[in-house]
């Protein structure tokens, strides 16, 4: 690292990487990925590159549920699958080591799509965002100030059309997106209940994130009755992260003109809905609207989101909880843990803290 | 009838009625209803009535799928269930025999909620619409110019946000609502395909209603493949009347930013979805919105709808097909036929043609 700092264009470094072994069609396991030695990489953008590029040292990597979809051999989605044998791609925070793009210089801290490895050569640097360093931890740009936070912001304000005093339910509520949705709803003057899968998370929802109530869905034999208990007058807004039996129970408990923002990729491909959804008939008499969305369609709102979140976080109005694994070698386990709810808060991996 | 005409306030008449025997939780059968003799009714509004009322002679009754929901012992819907032993309620066209409401006089032709009987005393006459007689058949006020036509109009224009050139799919397309949705979509410059359950109906869709294509869903072993064949570029708008496996196949064939207007009450209570809906995961990557609606929420648009339909029908731009059963005694069979697709076009029952 010392040599690299002195003359980054001159050195090289060993590059470990996490690759996908092969496509899967079940829930991911640790051994679907492998940590491999990628050999020595020169610490500069190769001279023969097709266009402007940026070489970065990865600092923090984000583990997100949508990535499971990229592990399947399914090419009809909005984002292509990973390539077996190749490095896993994901969002990250990184430091620029070398750049042939006029927008970036060595030392810049950026966020954007990178690789699960120590150094990445990024050939579409225009998708990177330069981070203005502040007193907010850099890794928060993968959650509170990044894609999950923006998903919460767009989903709540643009899809749910919330009104003060409405009843809001959030599933997977302690996760990266859910914890923020709930807090935005509280700031908006809504009554907010969240569900999570452990009693520890339920306590966090109430104590740290200020939800009005929360429950452990694993301890409820009848989800419909549980929701009826928490929402005797029904649910106006459901922020859908999970699908399956929870969605069916919610449909029975929705109010007239209710809105469901469908964010969840966890029930992708029906894999967590083996029994199917049976209560869609509720859509008609209750005039419910259900809308799938992807945050990137609203990217023009990103600057206002960043201002809003930064201000409210600094003012102590929004709390944020992150679950950090240390070391690239622990990235596969961290990712796999998402699907059994092991993480408490937004799951990230620290590859390096060398921000200088 | 002669006496009634001479002095309607003086006479009386025998009143046959169709009653619901008991609540059901399966598809309706003819013997769930019974034709009973309601005895003699005086042909005037009783003097001790609680408020203004109207006595009508029923001319045409409407058989609509939503009525099945009222045959169940389920009180959580937007409309209460029928009462066992009491007359079936439904939309109809009727002639006013006597009125104590200032808005109606004997001889007026009205449409609105009435009973499946020869004479009905209507104690909420404010819900009745006076029909201006024209050269359009009166019974069309139960379809083309009534609730089904308005459902099509509202669903297509207000829920589907159609754009010229978009790809539109309509299920149950030869039914009361579907036939009109398809024609509105054609008038709007869309490409329209419909599905129906017999080859005769498929021919009607193409020949009479001007759909670009149509298919018999019962002859398609793979609905997903069938839709792929008819919509190689995918579906922008789905007008949902049926639920079940068709909805699952549509979800896989929707385009980006597609819209699903959920109108269908046929799959109410999941009874026609025994396997459930498995493909809702498509909502997210395709940014699909799915919205249930009920026409009465848009009642302020009714006058413009009536103008539009009347004009286009008279200009020969919209065709309409009605399936009329003659005689109150045939009403149960006509209604039951809806659920096996026996009717070809909008199902009505003619009780009487005495419009004078």
TrEMBL record, chains A, B:
<comment type="subunit">
    <text>Homodimer.</text>
</comment>
<dbReference type="Pfam" id="PF16884">
    <property type="entry name" value="ADH_N_2"/>
</dbReference>
<dbReference type="GO" id="GO:0016628">
    <property type="term" value="F:oxidoreductase activity, acting on the CH-CH group of donors, NAD or NADP as acceptor"/>
</dbReference>
<keyword id="KW-0560">Oxidoreductase</keyword>
<dbReference type="Pfam" id="PF00107">
    <property type="entry name" value="ADH_zinc_N"/>
</dbReference>
<dbReference type="InterPro" id="IPR020843">
    <property type="entry name" value="ER"/>
</dbReference>
<dbReference type="InterPro" id="IPR036291">
    <property type="entry name" value="NAD(P)-bd_dom_sf"/>
</dbReference>
<feature type="domain" description="Enoyl reductase (ER)">
    <location>
        <begin position="34"/>
        <end position="349"/>
    </location>
</feature>
<dbReference type="InterPro" id="IPR011032">
    <property type="entry name" value="GroES-like_sf"/>
</dbReference>
<protein>
    <recommendedName>
        <fullName>Enoyl reductase (ER) domain-containing protein</fullName>
    </recommendedName>
</protein>
<dbReference type="InterPro" id="IPR013149">
    <property type="entry name" value="ADH-like_C"/>
</dbReference>
<dbReference type="InterPro" id="IPR045010">
    <property type="entry name" value="MDR_fam"/>
</dbReference>
<dbReference type="InterPro" id="IPR041694">
    <property type="entry name" value="ADH_N_2"/>
</dbReference>
């Amino acid at each position: 690292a010392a040599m690299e700092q002195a003359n980054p264009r001159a050195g090289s470094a060993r590059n470990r990487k996490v690759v996908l072994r092969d496509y899967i069609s079940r829930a991911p396991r640790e051994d679907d990925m492998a940590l491999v030695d990628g050999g020595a990489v020169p610490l500069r953008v190769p001279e023969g590159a097709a266009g402007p590029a940026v070489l970065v040292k990865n600092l923090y990597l984000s583990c997100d549920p949508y990535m499971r979809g990229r592990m399947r051999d399914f090419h009809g989605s909005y984002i292509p699958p990973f390539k077996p044998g190749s490095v896993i791609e994901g969002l990250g925070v990184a430091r620029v080591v070398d750049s042939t793009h006029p927008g970036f210089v060595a030392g810049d801290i950026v966020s954007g799509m990178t690789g699960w490895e120590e150094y990445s050569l990024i050939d579409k640097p225009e998708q990177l965002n330069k981070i203005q360093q502040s007193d907010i931890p850099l890794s928060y740009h993968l959650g509170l100030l990044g894609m999950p936070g923006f998903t919460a912001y767009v989903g709540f304000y643009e899809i749910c059309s919330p009104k003060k005093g409405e009843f809001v339910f959030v599933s997977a509520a302690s996760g990266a997106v859910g914890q923020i949705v709930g807090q935005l709803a509280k700031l908006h003057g809504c009554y907010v209940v969240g569900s999570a899968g452990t009693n520890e998370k339920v306590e966090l929802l109430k104590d740290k994130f200020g939800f009005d109530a929360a429950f452990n869905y694993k301890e409820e034999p009848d989800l419909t009755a549980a929701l009826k208990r928490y929402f005797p007058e029904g649910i106006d807004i459901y922020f859908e992260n999970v699908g399956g039996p929870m969605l069916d129970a919610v449909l029975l408990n929705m109010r007239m003109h209710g809105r469901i923002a469908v964010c969840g990729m966890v029930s992708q491909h029906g894999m967590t809905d083996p029994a199917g959804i049976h209560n869609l008939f509720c859509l008609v008499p209750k005039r419910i609207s259900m809308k799938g969305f992807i945050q990137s369609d609203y990217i023009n709102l990103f600057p206002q989101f960043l201002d809003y979140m930064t201000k409210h976080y600094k003012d102590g109005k929004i709390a944020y909880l992150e679950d950090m694994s240390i070391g690239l070698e622990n990235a596969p386990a961290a990712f796999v843990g998402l699907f059994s709810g092991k993480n408490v808060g937004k799951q990230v991996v620290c590859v390096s803290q060398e921000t200088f």
